[in-house]
Amino acid sequence: MKLVGTERVKRGMAEMQKGGVIMDVINAEQAKIAEAAGAVAVMALERVPSDIRKAGGVARMADPRIVEEVMNAVTIPVMAKARIGHIVEARVLEAMGVDYIDESEVLTPADEEFHLLKSDYTVPFVCGCRDLGEAARRIGEGASMLRTKGEPGTGNIVEAVRHMRKVNAQVRRVVGMSTDELMTEAKLLGAPFEVLVEIKKLGRLPVVNFAAGGIATPADAALMMELGADGVFVGSGIFKSENPEKFARAIVEATTHYKDYKLIAEISKELGTPMKGIDIATLSDSERMQERGW
Amino acid sequence: MVMWRIGVLALQGAVREHIDQIEKLGCEPVLVKSVEDLKDLNGLILPGGESTTIRKLLDRYELLNPIRTLAQNGLPIFGTCAGLILLADEIVGYESPHLGLMDVVVERNSYGRQVDSFEVELSIKDIGEDIPAVFIRAPHIVSVGKEVEVLAKQDERIVLARDRHFLGCSFHPELTEDVRILKYFVEMIKQCHNTSLAKLNSI
C-alpha cells in the first residue's frame, strides 16, 4: 500500500538536502540564479529577513503569487514560511504544493502559546531551535528538519554559532547518559522523553539540523559545517551582496568543501562587500527574532 | 571474504545512509569528494540528493569525466534517485545527459511534488519480496534499451533496472534498514571482479 506523508518520507526529504545550501529568494529571477549556483532548495519570500527588520510591522506568509512564481521557475524544491502557530497559512502553503514549510520566527507569530501540530500535515516542516529542549519539542510536534534560529537578517553569525554549539553539546550529553537519567534530563530541558530516548539510541538528532540566521560569507557557511551543521540556509546574505551570482556559488562551494581552506580563500576573493551586519548587542529585546517561539 | 571498497559520491545528499549500509554488509566505504578518492574502488554509489546541484559540483571539481572513464572500463555503479538521473543516457526535457552511462530514459520529479512523495513495499526480481522503498520527489524510468533488465515496477512504471554493471533505482533503499538491494549490488561487484580477473588470466 502506498503511504504519503509518513515520518520517513518527510524526514527523508530533508536528508536529501544534506551538505547543501538553501537560499532565500523573492522572485523567479533570483530563484533561477540560486538554482544555477547549485542551491538544493529555495525559500520563497516576499522580503528577506533584513528587509523585514527594516520594514517593521507585522510580517506574514508571502503573497501566494510570489510562491507560485518561484515554484514555476525552478525544478529544485521550494520552501515557504508560515507564521508560528498559523494553521491556515500552513494549510494554504500545503494546498499550493510547497515542498517544505518553515514555521518561522522571522515572521510575526500568530500564536504566542502554541506551535503547529506538524505531524498532522502531509507536507514536512522545518523549525528553528536554540537548544535541545526547543529542538526536541519541535520534533515532538512533528518537525522533520531543524535549523538554528541564529539572529536572522543581521549578517552576524554569533547567535547561529551559539545555538549550534549548544544543541550539539546537549546531544552529546544525552547520548552519554544512562537511560535511567533521561527522564530527569527531559524535565530539565523541557523535552519530550521519547525524543531523548531516540537521540540516545541513534547517537544523534533523529532529523537533520541546518545552520540559519546570520550567515554572511563563504567562511561563515564553512564554519557552521565545521561545527556540525548538516547544511546551511542563507537569507539576506546572497541577494544583498554586490554580486549575487558569484556570492551564491562561493557559498555552495564553501559548504561542500568546508575543510578546504585554500579553496575557501580562493572563492572569497573579490566577492565585493558583504551585507553590513548588525551587532546583536545593539538590538532591543523586541527586535530579537530568536525570542519568538518557545 | 574480500573487503570490497565501495565509494559514495559525497558532494551533497544522503551520503551517511549509504555509508551505514555499506558498513552493515562488512564492506569498506570511501567518501568520494575529489578525483583522488576514486582510486582503487571496486564499486561506486551515486546517492540521492538534488541532481542539479550534484551535477554542478561534479563539473566544478572535474569529476564527471574521470567517473565516466572508470565506468566505461568496468567500474560497477549504483545510482539511487538523483544518482539514477546522473546515470541515465537521456533525461526527458533536457538536451544532454549527465554521465550518460545507462541505456535508460528517465523523467525527473515524475510523481509530483513533495506532498506526493510516498513509501511502499516492492517485490523485486532476483532480490526479494516486501522490500521497503521510499520515493521522494522521485524520477522514474520511462523506457529502457534492449540489454537492460527491468527489476521492479511500481504503478506500471519502471523503478529499478540493471544495464550491464550499472544499477539504477528511482527510490531510496538507503533510508530503510533493508540492505537486500545493496547486497545485490555487491554481488554485481563480485561478478565484475571475477570477469575482469578471468580476462586478465586469458591474456
TrEMBL record, chain A:
Segments forming domain PdxS/SNZ N-terminal: 7-212
Gene3D superfamilies: Aldolase class I (3.20.20.70)
Pathway of action: Cofactor biosynthesis; pyridoxal 5'-phosphate biosynthesis
Any GO molecular function: pyridoxal 5'-phosphate synthase (glutamine hydrolysing) activity
Pfam families: SOR_SNZ
GO biological process, one term: pyridoxal phosphate biosynthetic process
Enzyme class: lyase
EC numbers for this chain: 4.3.3.6
Active site per the UniProt annotation: 81 (schiff-base intermediate with d-ribose 5-phosphate)
Binding site residues for D-glyceraldehyde 3-phosphate: 165
Key words, A-Z: Lyase, Pyridoxal phosphate, Schiff base
Cited CDD domains: pdxS
Amino acids binding D-ribose 5-phosphate: 24, 153, 214, 235-236
Catalytic function, reaction form: aldehydo-D-ribose 5-phosphate + D-glyceraldehyde 3-phosphate + L-glutamine = pyridoxal 5'-phosphate + L-glutamate + phosphate + 3 H2O + H(+)
Its biological purpose: Catalyzes the formation of pyridoxal 5'-phosphate from ribose 5-phosphate (RBP), glyceraldehyde 3-phosphate (G3P) and ammonia. The ammonia is provided by the PdxT subunit. Can also use ribulose 5-phosphate and dihydroxyacetone phosphate as substrates, resulting from enzyme-catalyzed isomerization of RBP and G3P, respectively.
UniProt cross-references to PANTHER family, sorted A to Z: PYRIDOXAL 5'-PHOSPHATE SYNTHASE SUBUNIT SNZ1-RELATED
Record's subunit section: Homohexamer and homododecamer. In the presence of PdxT, forms a dodecamer of heterodimers.
Protein family according to the UniProt entry: Belongs to the PdxS/SNZ family.
Name used for this protein in its record: Pyridoxal 5'-phosphate synthase subunit PdxS
Organism from which the protein derives: Lysinibacillus halotolerans
